[in-house]
Amino acid sequence: MLFLINLISFLAQLITILVIVQVVLSYFMDPYHPLRQTIDRILEPFLAPIRRLIPQTGMLDFSPLVLIILVQIIAQVLIRLLRSL
pTM for this structure? Predict the structure, then answer.
């Protein structure tokens, strides 16, 4: 059970870090750079549904922030559920 809790926590942290790195790199790095394309390919399946629900506001894209919040909430719910078993 502890392994599963640690795995969920690790994955939530990993996704959060990748989202932050993607946002920072989007300001400084060419979109065709291999590192940025790799991160985009990893995160796009998570961000695309959010972008369909929450449209861009001018130049701002709030989908990364929404993804971070959702990942943290889901991770906490799953961890609490596993601890209660």
Answer: 0.91
